[in-house]
């Protein structure tokens, strides 16, 4: 939800594109199909800390002259083809909310190396003005106070010094889990491009329903019994399936852009087959930087035991 709130508040219309089955990241082919003359930007979430296909998305954005925004909230320290995450697009957003790789309790960072956006982002942190004097005290844009406090920023700066250790440890842990689970029937593993670094905010497994004698809930219960921090599913429904989208009730139960005829979007008619299949079949395993190699080996052994126990045939 955090990815699209800002879009809706700016009176933009989020158009959802489908996802790749083994990463949960945007499928550039489906994004291409959804682009219209009204499209302004593409937003790619690096789900679970796994870099989306930025080369393909950047090519699409350039071809259609669109702004490419990276939602790096779950991807602190990830590397996209060897480069720091957030540098392939025009704008990158990072969350410092308490559950993320590094945190300031709450808050976040928006970054851009594009001179068109950098100063503008700064003004959006201060009601549309620039205390450095660049706007002469005038307000050219209507903006709010989207800013983090100085005190939190000081914490954030200190946290950054820990980031590489956290990111590399998580990357190692997730990759080790993949190497140990490879070949286990019935499971689709968290697919990472070998030239990227995924920082596993979580590890995304998918169950092939026909391969197991049990439902996902029972499978996850058995994982828990093995001491594995796993959860069945992710968000309960795709964003467009939420009541607020189904009712188009964004502003006091109304949606001005629709009432004014500026969009024909009807979220009750949106379906994304792969996204829905991912949500039905995924299992998330929590990884973190405190987990030792032995711990991850034990996780892998536990998953293997449960998967073998419930395997059909
Ligand atoms: C992918 C993604 N985007 C956006 C957000 C929103 O971040 P914040 O809570 O800092 O606004 C989150 C945080 O939960 C997230 O995981």
General description of the model:
- The chain is 35% helix and 12% strand.
- It has helices spanning 2-9, 28-34, 54-63, 118-124, 150-181, 216-225, 243-246, 256-259, 273-281, 293-310, and strands spanning 41-45, 67-71, 79-80, 83-84, 91-95, 108-111, 187-188, 203-207, 230-232, 282-285.
- The chain has a 4-stranded mixed β-sheet, with helices on one face. The protein has a 4-stranded antiparallel β-sheet with strand order 7-8-10-9. A two-stranded antiparallel ribbon has the order 3-4.
- The longest helix has 32 residues, at 150-181.
- The radius of gyration is 21 Å and the shape is globular.
- The structure holds pyridoxal-5'-phosphate (PLP).
Draw up the topology in text:
Layout: H1 2-9, H2 28-34, E1 41-45, H3 54-63, E2 67-71, E3 79-80, E4 83-84, E5 91-95, E6 108-111, H4 118-124, H5 150-181, E7 187-188, E8 203-207, H6 216-225, E9 230-232, H7 243-246, H8 256-259, H9 273-281, E10 282-285, H10 293-310
Parallel strand pairs: 1-2, 2-5
Antiparallel strand pairs: 3-4, 5-6, 7-8, 8-10, 9-10
Bound molecules: pyridoxal-5'-phosphate.
In short:
With 313 residues, the chain is α+β, with helices and mostly antiparallel strands. It has helices at 2-9, 28-34, 54-63, 118-124, 150-181, 216-225, 243-246, 256-259, 273-281, 293-310, and strands at residues 41-45, 67-71, 79-80, 83-84, 91-95, 108-111, 187-188, 203-207, 230-232, 282-285. It starts with a helix and ends with a helix.
């Amino acid at each position: 939800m955090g990815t699209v709130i800002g879009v809706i508040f700016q009176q933009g219309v989020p158009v959802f594109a489908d996802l790749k089955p083994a990463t949960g990241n945007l499928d550039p082919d489906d994004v291409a199909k959804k682009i219209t003359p009204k499209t302004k930007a593409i937003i790619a979430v690096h789900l679970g800390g796994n870099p989306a296909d930025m080369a393909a998305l950047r090519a699409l954005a350039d071809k259609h002259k669109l702004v490419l925004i990276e939602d790096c909230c779950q991807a602190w320290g990830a590397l996209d083809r060897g480069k720091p995450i957030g540098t392939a697009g025009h704008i990158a957003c990072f969350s410092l909310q308490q559950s993320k790789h590094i945190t300031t309790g709450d808050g976040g960072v928006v970054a851009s190396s594009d001179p068109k956006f950098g100063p503008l982002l700064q003004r959006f942190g201060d009601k549309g003005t620039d205390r450095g004097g660049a706007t002469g005290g005038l307000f050219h844009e209507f903006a709010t106070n989207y800013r983090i406090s100085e005190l939190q920023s000081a914490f954030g700066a200190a946290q950054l010094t820990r980031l590489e250790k956290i990111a590399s440890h998580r990357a190692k842990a997730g990759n080790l889990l993949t190497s140990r689970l490879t070949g286990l029937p019935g499971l689709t593993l968290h697919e990472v491009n070998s030239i990227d670094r995924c920082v596993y905010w979580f590890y995304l497994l998918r169950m092939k329903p026909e391969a197991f004698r049990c439902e996902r809930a029972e499978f996850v219960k058995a994982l828990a019994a093995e001491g594995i921090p796993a959860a069945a599913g992710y968000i309960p429904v795709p964003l467009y399936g939420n009541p607020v989208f189904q009712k188009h009730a964004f502003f006091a139960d109304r949606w001005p852009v629709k009432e004014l005829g500026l969009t024909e979007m009807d979220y009750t008619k949106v379906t994304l087959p792969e996204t829905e299949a991912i949500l039905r079949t995924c299992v998330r395993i929590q990884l973190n930087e405190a987990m030792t190699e032995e711990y991850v080996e034990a996780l892998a052994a536990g998953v293997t035991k449960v998967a073998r126990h419930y395997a059909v045939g």
